[in-house]
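Researcher: Good morning. I'm working through a list of sequences from a screen, and I'd like to move beyond sequence-only analysis. For each chain I'm collecting a predicted structure so we can compare shapes side by side. This is the next one on the list. No need for commentary yet; just the structure.
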Amino acid sequence: MSGWFRRQAYALRAAWGHLRATPGNFLLNMLVLAMTLALPFAGATLLTNVRPITEQLAVETEISLFVKMNTPREQSEALAGSIRKVFQEHGQQVKIIFTPSEKALDQLKERSGLADIVGTLGANPLPDGYLIRLEQYGSAQAAAQIETIVAQLEKLPNVDKVQLDSAWIKRLAALMQVLRLALLFVASTLGVVVVAVVFNTIRLQVMSHLDEIRLLQLVGATDAFIRRPFHYTGALLGFGAGCIALATVALALLPLNVAIADLARLYSSDFQLLPLDVLASALLLFVSALLGWIGATLSVRRHLSRPQ
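Model: Good morning. Structure tokens for this chain:
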């Protein structure tokens, strides 16, 4: 085991020596890779920040049921049992909140700031209603299943209108799915670009160290021993580029959050974009290092062979 560690340590030192020998090319290639990785990293950051909001919206899907005007209060309150029975027939659990017309009017006055205008209406123009919160829906796809239930609710006696506000949630979920697929496509395409850049960089490294490689082959060095430093060179390029890309995305969030804060205040929200957490960042750095390793491996296999 100690011999394995010594070989890896030697390969890492040799890889670092290769990079230090041409620092200009090393930094330039790393910047190219970093700019290539910055786009998918930014997309991953955006989706990570938006996901909790979309999940919360889907979980809090609600149905508003309005009772016909002039329906006696006893009949309005009795609808709760019929509503619950409809959902139980479909094996669903819901939270039902009855809102008398008087309470609905008070809420309208408080939220709209039009208390004086509402007061001039005389009679209460609002009906009794129910707010039905769906407790077992964690996605827009699940919310789509209640459309048949809504149709049954509309047929209940004394029901004037049933409003389901899940259509926009389904559209939002569909949009998020499209964005995920687009990010996957972009990330895959740019991953190929990273491999190609590392491939060409390692090819130049191999060409510049041909004399050293031939000497090692003459003294009996194995192919794995010769190739290992170039593998680590590619991995270091990918890892360094990943670090720069993450730092670039984090810095770009600062001016974005200034603009987002102004918009969020209009909706009484404190939403802001946060950098990726440690685990997600470590995963992206591993992927970027792995892409560098793959590019180096392909290049070494293609361009490094024993002289005849």
